[in-house]
Amino acid sequence: MRPFKLLVAFAVLLCIRPLVYAQQSPVSIINSKLEGKVVDERTGDPLPGAVVIIKSTTHAVSTDASGNFRFATGQKFPYVLIVSYIGYKKQEVVVNGGPVTVRLAENVNELSEIVVNDTYSSQSKKSYTGSAAIVKGATLENKPLSSPQLALQGQVAGLGVAVTSGQPGANVQVRLRGLGSTALSSNPLYVIDGMIVNAGDLSRLTSGINNSSNALAGLNADDIESYTVLKDASATSIYGSRGSNGVIIITTKKGKVGKAQVNLDAETGNTSTIPLPAAGQPLNADQFSTLFIEGLRNAGTYTPDQIAALAESYGFNSGKTTNWQDIIHRTGRQQQYNVSVRGGNENIKVFLSLGYFDQQATIIGSALKRVNGLLNVDQRISKNISVAAGLNVSNVNQLSPVGTTGSWANPVFAASILRPFQRAYNDDGSINSSSSSNTGFVAHYNPLWIAAYDKHTLSQTRALGNLNVNWHIWDQLRFSSYASIDYNVLEEIQFENPILGNSQSSNGSASNAYNRYFNWLLRNQLDYRFNFSKAQDFYLNLTAGYEAQKYSRYELRASGTGFPLTQPDLNALANAATPTLASGSSSGSTFNSVYFRGSSNYKNRYSLSATFRRDASSVFGLDNQYGNFWSIGGAWNIDGERFFENQPILSTAKFHTSFGTTGNAQGIGDYAAQPLASYGSNYGGGNGQNYNGVGNPDLQWEQQKKFDLGVDAGLFEDRLIFNVDYYHNNIYKLIQQVSISMTTGFANIPYANSGSMLNKGVELSVRGIPVKTKSFNWNASFNIAFNNNHVTDVGGNTSVINGNYYFQKGYDYYTYYTRLYAGVNPDNGEALWYTDGTRTKTINDYNKAARVPYKSATPKYFGGFSNTFYYKGIALNVDFYYNFGNYIVDGWSTRFYDGNYYTFNKYQRTYNNRWTTPGQVTDVPKYIAGGGSGGQNQSQAYSSRFLYKGDFIKLKNFTLGYDLKKLPYLQHSTAISKLYVYVRGTNLWTKTYDKKLPYDPESGTVTIPQFKTYTVGLNVGF
Amino acid sequence: MKKIYWSLLLPAIVLTACKKDFLRQQSATAVNASTAINTVNDLADAVNGMYTASKNSSLFGVNVPVLGDLLADNIFISSSNYGQLTSDNNYTFIATSGEANGIWLQGYNTILQANRIIAAPIASTPTVDQLKGEAYAIRALTYLTLVNYFAKPNTISPDADGVPIITIPTYETGPYIKPARNSVKEVYDRVITDLDSAFLILPNTPIAANIHATNSNYISKYAAKAIEARAFLYRGDYANAQAAALLVVTQGGYTLTTTASAFKSFWTSATATDGKVETIFELNNNTTGAVSGLADFFSQAGNGEMLCTKELYDLYTPTDLRKGLIVNGIRKGNGQPAFLVNKYPNASNPDKDEIKIIRYAEVLLTLAESYARTGDETSARNYLNQLATVRDPSFTGYVSSGQQLLDDIVNERRKELAFEGLRLFDLYRLNQVIYRPAQPYSYPGYPEVSLTDIRRLQPIPQNEVDVNPNIKQNPGY
C-alpha cells in the first residue's frame, strides 16, 4: 500500500512540474573577469584542486596544479568568493578585482566542516544528532593491506577489527560497540556508494580461518574517498532491521571540477616473517630427542632396548634434520600500482582508476592478487536534473592452503608438530613423499609436498554498478531514484593429490564450486526542505522513501576422485575417474522497506531529528515479516550561545543524544522460518523427501534499543578536539538456538527469539596538534573504547555450557567456563587442578575438578594511537593499535603440551619448564609418553593453564616520506603537481604481556600468521 | 524531457506490481512441510525419506544393532579402538551420553516422518495404502525399539513408564509440545494397532508401478506381520505371537538358504533380495547415502573394534555354518588374536552391507518359542529344527522339552541373530542377568548386569529432561 501512496505523491508532483519548467535559464553575459591563486596560509604552498565558488551562484572553478584559478562571469564586482579545500578552513573573500591571493588556514576542527552522508541524506556534522565517525580515505591509501577493513583498525573508537588470519584476503571480524548478536552475524552492515552490499565470507568450498575469503577484498583503498561509521540509534535506525551492528559507509572518489588530475602510485617491497615468541618455538633436534626419550622412560612400559629401537626408527641417529619453520616460511612479494584520473566541468565530472595489488603471505601457498577498475561519472542533464553513475569491477585471485587449523595439510600446524627428524627432502633433493617410515610421513603430511601438488584457489569477480537520478522539482523539493546491482561470481577449485595428503586413500580428489551472488536494490526518495519564514536559520528537512532489495545465489558444485598418479599437473576435475558429486541449487531473500526522516535545525544551535523505518523480509514467517524501527535524537551546539563567548578555553562544544531501535536478521537462513521438507534423502535410488526443518513461524527481528549521549569539544581554537560518547545498547528478542522436546523429531529450533544481552560503554577520541611551529608540526590522534557486555536473560536456554564459555545471566557472553589449573605437585610432577572456584583444595584428577566461570575473551578496552610529524616536507607516520583485558585460549593445547601426543613436536616452554626432579616447582607436569594415567591423562585438556593474556600493542604502520615538490627546482613545476616518495613498514613491533604466550595474540594458534611488510613507494601527480 | 520524468516513475510502478509475491521466497530444494504431500509421488518420496531417517547411524543404521549386542554378551570393544561406544562397553553411560540422545532423537524423527505420511490427506488407493502401510509398520518398529531401550520390559511391569506416544506431525502440534511418558502397555498397544493397520492395508502383492522396488528394502505385508510377531513375543503375548509368526511362515513365502555356499554368499552380498530368501526387511545401504558405521565397527577392513566374545564363539559347533561368519584371527590395531565378526564384510565396498531388520529365521524361532510357551512342544521342535538343521548340516535336531527346550530356543536365537542387535531384548524380556566375562585385550569391563541395575534402562536424554518438565527420568540417572 505504501508505495502506492508514494506513487500518488509523485503524480501530484508531476502536475507542479510545468511551473518549474517555465523558468528560463539566464542568458550568458560576461560582466567581470577574475584571476587568483589559493595558497597555504602557513607555508605559502599553492593548493591545487581547491574549489572557488562565487557566493549565491552555482558558478564554481577549481585551482590548477599551481593553485591558480580564473573566472569569466556574469556577476559584477564586488562579489564574494567562497574558497574551500579539504583539510582547510573554508574562507569567504570579498573581491573588487583581480588578481587575488587567498590564504587558507589548515583545519583540525571537524565539527563545522565535515558532512555526514549516511546514504539517505547529508547533514553537517554540526547539526547531526547521531554518533558517527568519519575517516578520510586519503589517510589509508597505498597501504600494503589486502582489504579495506584492515585499514580501519585503530582508526575509529569502538570499532574493533580482529585480524584473525594473515591469509591475504581472509575474512575480517569487525565488531562495533561490542558483540551485537549471539547466533546471528555481529558484523556491521557495509554500504558502498549507496548500495547495501554482500559482505563477509561468500566462499562455499572452504571453511575455517586459514582460507576464508572476504567479499570486500576487491575494493581498492586508493579509490575510497571516505569511510563513515554510523554508531548510535539516530545514525543507524534509518537502516532499520539491518542497523543493529552499526553501518560502515564507503564512498568512492568522484570527479571534480577542474583540470584533469592524473595520479600514479607505485609501491613495492616484500613481506617478512614475524618470529614466534620464545615460548612457542618448536624444539630443535637435540631437544626433541631428549624429550622423546625422557617421555618413554617416564611412561615406564618401555625397556631400554625398545627405547633404543624407537630412537633409531625415528631417525635420532640419522644426523639428518629439518627446520620446519624455515621450510614453510618465505620472504614474500608485496606490490601495488594504481593510476587514476580525476576531472570535470560544471556539467560532467569523472573519476577513473585502475589498480593492481599483489601480496604473498610469508607462509608457502598463501597469496592474493587483485585487479580492479572504477569509473564514476556525474552528469548534469538539465538545470534541475543530474545523473550519477558508477561502476566498480574487480577480480581477486586468492591462493590458500588446502588444510585449515588442525589439519595435517595446514602448513602452519604441520610445521609446529612435525619432528625435526622427519625429512622434507630426499637425499637426491626431491621432495619427500614417503608415508612408510618414521622419518617420512606415516601419519602427517610433508607441507612442501602439499604446497607443491595440492591446490586451493578462489577467483572472485565483482561488478558493483549504480545509477542515481536527482531531480530538483523545485528549490525545496527533490526526488531521487537510485538503482544498484552487486554481482559476485566465485569460482573455487580444490585439488588434493593422490600421493600424499588428505585424499591419498581415494587416489586424489577435486572439488569445484561456482557461486553467483546477485543482489539488486532500488530506492526512490523525496526530500523536502521547509524554511520557517518568520525565523531566520530555522528549517525542517523531511524525507520519505521506498526501498526494495533482492539477494539471490546460484550454485553449481561437482567433485570427483581418482586422479592420474604420475601426472601431477592434470588436476582438473575432468580427469577424475569417479564422479562423486554433481549438484546445482539456488536460493534468495528479499527486503521491502519504507522510511521517513524529519530533522529540524535552528540557527545551527539546536537540532532535532526523528526517523522511522518499516522493513519486511522474506526470511520471516508470513505473519511476522514486518518490523518497525525508529529513533529520536537531539543536538545542542553550545558554542552558538552567548554565554559561551565568555570563556577562553573551549572553542567549540556540542552535546548530542539519541534513543531508538534497530534490528538484526543477518545470518538467518533464507527459509529458516518455514517448516521444510527437503529433498535429497534418497533411498534405494528413489527421491527422498524428509521433514528436516522444524521452522519457526513466530520468528521475528532481533532488536536493539540504543541510547547514546555524546560530547564533542574543541579547545585552544580547536587545536585539541575531544569526542566522548556513552552508549547503552540493550539487545532483546535475541535470536538463538532454543532446545525443544525431541519428541517433536527435532532437538532444537535453530532460530528463535529468546533472551537478551546488554552492551554499554564509553568511547573517547582525542585529536590535536601538540606542536605547531613554522617548520615543524606534530599531529596526534588517540582513541580508546571500553565496552561491557553481559547476558541479561538466557531465555529458553537451560545449559550454562556454551562450548568453552559460560552462558549465564550477568556474565560476559565470552566468559570462559573452565577448570582452574593449580600447577604441578613438586613431589611427583603430577598436574593439579582446584576442585572448585574457591581455590582451597587441589586434586590430581582433571575429571574431578569443577568447571567455573573465569576471565573472558572479550577485550576490556582497545583503540589506536597515531602520530604524524612534518618537518620541511618530511612526514613521519607512526600508528599503533592496542588491545587489553581479554584472555585467549590455546585450542590446540592437546597437541603441543605434555606427552599425550609424544610423537609431535612441542612448544619450547613445555621443554624448558617440565618437571624433572622431586622438589622442583614449576607449572609444566612430568613429561610422560602417551600421557599420565587416569585424570592425569587430561593434563593438556582445556583448563585455565591454557588461557593467556591477550593484551598487546602493535606498531601497525611506520611511514617516512618526503615531498620532492619542496625541492627548489620542482617547487614551481607546473607539469608535476605532486611528487612524493616514502618507505613504509607494517607490523614492525609487537608488545605482549604474557611470557607463556606461544603465538601472536591477534591471530591465534595454527593459523596463517600476520607478517611484516617493508615497502618503498612513489606518488606522482600531473 | 518529459520522457525522462516518466522513466523515473517506472521503478516505483514495477515494484508496486510485484509486491505480493516479492516477500514470498521459496526454497529450491525443499517444500513447506505442512503441504508437502499432495500426490502419490510425493507420498512415495516421503516414504523414501522415512527409510533414510530410520537408517541414520544413531538409530537402525549403527547404534541400535550394535548396542543390542554390546550391552549384552555377544560383543565387546577391543583395547585398540577409536573411542566410540566405550562408555556402553564399560556400562558408564549417563544421562548426557550421546547414544541415548541419538536413539531418542532419531527415533522420534523417524516417527515424525511416518506421522506425516499417515496424516497425508490423500484418498485411499491400493498404491496409497501400500505406502501408508509401510509408514505404519516403520512407526511401530521404531516405538518397539524405543520402548525396549528406555522402559522396563512389558513382561515384568507393563504399567511402568514407557515413552511418549506422538502421532501428529510437528507442523500441526507446534514445536513446543512437552509430552509425558505413556505406559509400556500403551506403547505396545500403539505398536500392535499400527501393525494391524499396516497388515490390513498393505496389498498382498506389492505394487511396483512407479513408486519403488518390491524387494526386501521395503516393508511388505508379511514384514509387518513378522514385526508384529516380534512385538507380541516381547510383550509376552505368546498366543498372538504364535498366530502372527505362523501367518508369516505359511503365507509369507519366505525361505532359508539351503546350502553352505548360498548361506555364505547371502552374507557377503551387499544388495537386497527379491526372492524372499532369508531377509524379510532390511534397510538399503547402497553407494549413495551409505551408512558405513556397521561394517566399519565389525570389519577389519574398517575400524573393526567390535569383537565377538569367546562365550558366543564357543557356542557354535565346528560344523555350524554360522561359525564361518566369525574368524579366529588377528585384531588389526594391536596385532592380538581375536574373534573377528565377518557378518558385514563390505567395509571397503562403496555399496555397504544392507542393515538387516528382520529375517525369516527370527520368525521361525519366534514361532518355536511361542509354541513351546503355549504348550505345543512338538510344533516348537519342528520349527526350531527347521532352522537349526539347515544351519548345521551335521545336526540332527533338538529333542529337548520343558525348560531345556526353551533354553535351546533362546540359545539358538543368540547364535542365529548375533550381531543384529536383538540379544539384549531377549535378556530383558526374559528378565535374565547379563553375564559379561572379561575379554582379552579389552577394558576390565562390567562383568554382570544384575536385575536391579539401573543401566538396564537407557537414560532419558538430559536434553529432553531439561526442556520437558512432564517427562520422568529413569530411576538412578
Automatic annotation (TrEMBL), chain A:
InterPro entries from the UniProt entry: Beta-barrel_TonB (IPR000531), Beta-barrel_TonB_sf (IPR036942), CarboxyPept-like_regulatory (IPR008969), Plug_dom (IPR012910), Plug_dom_sf (IPR037066), TonB-dep_OMP_SusC/RagA (IPR023996), TonB-dep_OMP_SusC/RagA_CS (IPR023997), TonB-dep_rcpt-like (IPR039426)
Domain annotation TonB-dependent receptor-like beta-barrel: ranges: 426-896
Secretion signal span: 1-22
Cited PROSITE patterns: TONB_DEPENDENT_REC_3
Keywords on record: Cell outer membrane, Membrane, Signal, TonB box, Transmembrane, Transmembrane beta strand, Transport
Localization: Cell outer membrane
Domain TonB-dependent receptor plug positions: 125-247
Record membrane topology: Multi-pass membrane protein
Any Pfam family matching the protein: CarbopepD_reg_2
Gene3D superfamilies on file: Carboxypeptidase-like, regulatory domain, TonB-dependent receptor, beta-barrel domain, TonB-dependent receptor, plug domain
Gene Ontology cellular component list: cell outer membrane
NCBIfam families xref list: OMP_RagA_SusC, SusC_RagA_signa
Family stated for the protein in its record: Belongs to the TonB-dependent receptor family.
Name of this chain's protein: TonB-linked outer membrane protein, SusC/RagA family
Taxonomic lineage of the native organism: Bacteria, Pseudomonadati, Bacteroidota, Chitinophagia, Chitinophagales
UniProtKB/TrEMBL annotation, chain B:
Family: Belongs to the SusD family.
Primary location: membrane
Protein name per its UniProtKB record: Starch-binding associating with outer membrane
Positions of the RagB/SusD domain: 343-477
Classification lineage: Bacteria, Pseudomonadati, Bacteroidota, Chitinophagia, Chitinophagales
SusD-like N-terminal domain boundaries: 21-231
Keywords: Cell outer membrane, Membrane, Signal
Alphabetical list of InterPro entries matching this protein: SusD-like_N (IPR033985), SusD_RagB_dom (IPR012944), TPR-like_helical_dom_sf (IPR011990)
Localization per record: Cell outer membrane
